Amino acid sequence: MLYPHEAYERTSFGFKYLSAPSQPLRLISIGWEHVNSPSYRWHGLHRGGGFAIFQYTLSGRGMFRDGERTFALPKETGFFTVVPSDQEYYYPEGGEGWEFLYVLVAGTDALNHWTELTRAFGPVLSLQGHQEPVRLLSQLYAEICRQPQLDKYTISARLYEWLMSLHRLAEGRDIVRGTEELPDSMRAAVKLMKGQYMMDLSVDDLAEAAGLTKYHFCRQFLKKTGLKPNQYLRKIRVEQAAWLLRHTDKTVDAVARETGFGYTNYFIKVFRSFVGATPQEYRLGQRGDPVYFLRIEP
């Protein structure tokens, strides 16, 4: 089975809310459909308003118009649209069927996320080779099929997880979620960084640990982590420095030396760029939350 929804029938679910719309992200409709008639046509200026739609082609082909631009929607392609807008999606004349998953959501967060994702991808995006967002949407459909009375808060949580998978894709395309998901070559380089961050490690050292050429290593590392190797090494050093500043009485100079920064002034500059505070400000809690461990994300 490719997707969880394939264990269920092709249908759709709609949701109405009796209480005032307090949730910033609410599911209005989700469905798995197949159409083969040109009468299937939705225009963003000829229907209600205040909601956002994502639709993903499972097989066949549809069409999407955004102003004066027209896009084909083949398999593994999806589109974003908001209503009202001068956009429409439809089944073309002479087609051989169009099968898709769709989700229709409302709320302030829905419109904000659609704006950001459209800015990153454009109105149409290919998810070929990037199946995590499709899997999560398919999983939501299957979960609602199993339990149509699933409460609205759980549904919203699933929608946020799905949206975050799209944002991850927008920011890094192939960025993985943790070092455990990195290829062995990349993990070897990260292990070296974490074990010897206080040493004067070069990109050549890291590429050698990964067993790759320097060019290929740098290219793959950026693709998988969202950071260049030297940026990732600085990230590890700053995280360790933050821990030392909060949990020891060592001077800023000593912390700089112990975390691989050759010069205190350079350490202060890098620390501020990552944390938004100088090492001393961070130590005193003048800027930044007094957390036990600081994690820096790409």
TrEMBL record:
Q: Which residues form the HTH araC/xylS-type domain?
A: 187-285
> InterPro entries this protein is in?
AraC-bd, AraC_XylS_family_regulators, Homeodomain-like_sf, HTH-like, HTH_AraC, HTH_AraC-typ_CS, Tscrpt_reg_AraC-type_HTH
The highest taxon in the source lineage is Bacteria
Tell me the keywords, alphabetical order: Activator, DNA-binding, Transcription, Transcription regulation
A Pfam family that this protein carries is AraC_binding
PANTHER family referenced in this protein's UniProt entry, alphabetically: HTH-TYPE TRANSCRIPTIONAL ACTIVATOR RHAS-RELATED
Name of the protein in its database record: AraC family transcriptional regulator
Q: Which organism is it from?
A: Paenibacillus gyeongsangnamensis
